[in-house]
């Protein structure tokens, strides 16, 4: 069976940039957008043009710069927002307007003080209006994760009739369980008239640590676009991490789904975004964390030294990391120590290793990690001792 493509919609520059302290200027956004385009992203959400003159400028400049990806601007469901987004996107080769409105009970009641009928009408009206500017209009049903499926289906049907090409089903508050989110996508696929005219998109937040799992559940149930950010950046606990979904689809050939992202650029992309946004990546972050390919316990190290596949499911080169690393700590064993000695030019015999290992443990118990300088000192002391 032929593998089906999942479109990757990157929102690092919009949802990702909403993180407090992560504000980027236009120049920094252009650097990231250019790399995202090279990475093979299908859609770059460049910003929310009406939100500030700076964001308008960024979307406009990114539209001029990006060669391959579609460039998208966010709006609320009103004419002014859409007019401004259309103006910011006017230089884009492939522009997309992303408009929408909250559809859950709590958004309708508390945010809009409105009714389901009125929201449905406003949703369709916004899409119809956006269509007067661009062919490609994505609609988001904000808080779809907590919206009842029957009403969500009615909204989806109305916006498809109005011309929406993509239906974004955001789990805005990160509330859904994977099974539930997957079933929501399946329900829409089976119950929305005209659904074959639109692409269903997953946009998941990570409040319960389920954003990636929910996005995968979504595509397993028929969604064909995932919205995500580099390093999983985003409001509160963040969005679905781009590097995670890309590598899940790459590793799980059994899903018969793929993306066009060049995974070998993931590590440098992560470093660049972390650097420009001033947001460090947690060391144990999947795929791009500093420890993602580091081994420190004796049993694991022994396995990896014999054959990498014993404890690694991804070849680090596949994500742009040159090699796995063997970290020396008090939990490390003899084979890791011999491996690291060899690495710095010392081929030790078995008897020497037995002695050096005891010396190593004395130092390792006092430190978090043993570096090459510590190893050199251990060897030099040993050499002096044996004359
Ligand atoms: O999380 C969300 O609902 C959003 C929409 C504005 C698309 O980011
Ligand atoms: Zn979001």
Automatic annotation (TrEMBL):
Superkingdom to which the source organism belongs: Bacteria
Enzyme class: transferase
One Pfam family hit: HCS_D2
Coiled-coil ranges per UniProt: none
GO biological process: L-leucine biosynthetic process
Residue stretches making up the Pyruvate carboxyltransferase domain: 6-267
Stored InterPro entries: 2-IPM_HCS-like, AIPM/Hcit_synth_CS, Aldolase_TIM, LeuA/HCS_post-cat, PYR_CT
Gene Ontology molecular-function annotations: 2-isopropylmalate synthase activity
Pathway: Amino-acid biosynthesis; L-leucine biosynthesis; L-leucine from 3-methyl-2-oxobutanoate: step 1/4
This protein's record includes keyword Transport: no
The EC number(s) this enzyme carries: 2.3.3.13
Keywords annotated in UniProt: Acyltransferase, Amino-acid biosynthesis, Branched-chain amino acid biosynthesis, Leucine biosynthesis, Manganese, Transferase
Family statement drawn from the similarity comment of this UniProt entry: Belongs to the alpha-IPM synthase/homocitrate synthase family. LeuA type 1 subfamily.
Protein name (record): 2-isopropylmalate synthase
């Amino acid at each position: 069976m032929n593998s089906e493509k999942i479109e990757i919609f990157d929102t690092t520059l919009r949802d990702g940039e909403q993180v407090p302290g992560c504000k980027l200027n236009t120049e920094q956004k252009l650097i990231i957008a250019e790399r995202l385009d090279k990475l093979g992203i299908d859609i770059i959400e460049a910003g929310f043009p009406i939100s500030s003159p700076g964001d308008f400028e960024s979307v406009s400049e990114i539209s001029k710069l990006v060669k391959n990806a579609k460039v998208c601007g966010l709006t609320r469901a009103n004419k002014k927002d859409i007019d401004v987004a259309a103006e910011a996107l006017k230089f884009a080769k492939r522009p997309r307007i992303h408009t929408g409105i909250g559809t859950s009970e709590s958004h309708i009641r508390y945010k809009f003080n409105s009714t389901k009928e009125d929201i449905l009408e406003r949703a369709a009206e916004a899409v119809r209006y956006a269509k007067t500017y661009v062919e490609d209009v994505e609609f988001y049903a904000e808080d779809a994760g907590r919206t009842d499926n029957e009403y969500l289906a009615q909204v989806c049907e109305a916006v498809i009739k109005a011309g929406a090409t993509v239906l974004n089903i955001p789990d805005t508050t990160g509330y859904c369980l994977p099974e539930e989110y997957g079933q929501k996508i399946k329900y829409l696929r089976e119950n929305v008239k005209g659904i074959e005219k639109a692409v269903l998109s997953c946009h998941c937040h990570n409040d319960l640590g389920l954003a990636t799992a929910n996005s995968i559940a979504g595509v397993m149930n028929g969604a064909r676009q995932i919205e995500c950010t580099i390093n999983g950046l985003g409001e509160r606990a963040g969005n679905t991490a781009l590097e995670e979904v890309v590598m899940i689809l790459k590793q799980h050939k059994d899903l018969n789904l793929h993306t066009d992202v060049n995974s070998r650029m993931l590590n440098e992309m992560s470093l660049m975004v972390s650097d420009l946004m001033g947001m460090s990546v947690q060391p144990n972050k999947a795929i791009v964390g500093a420890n993602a390919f580091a081994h420190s316990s004796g049993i694991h190290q022994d396995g990896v030294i014999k054959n990498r596949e014993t404890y690694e499911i991804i070849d680090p080169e596949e994500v742009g990391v040159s090699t796995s690393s063997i970290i020396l700590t008090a939990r490390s064993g003899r084979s890791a120590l011999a491996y690291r000695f060899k690495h710095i030019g010392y081929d030790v015999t078995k008897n020497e290793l037995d002695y050096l290992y005891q010396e190593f443990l004395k130092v390792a118990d006092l430190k978090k990690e043993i570096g090459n300088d510590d190893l050199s000192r251990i060897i030099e002391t040993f050499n002096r001792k044996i004359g």
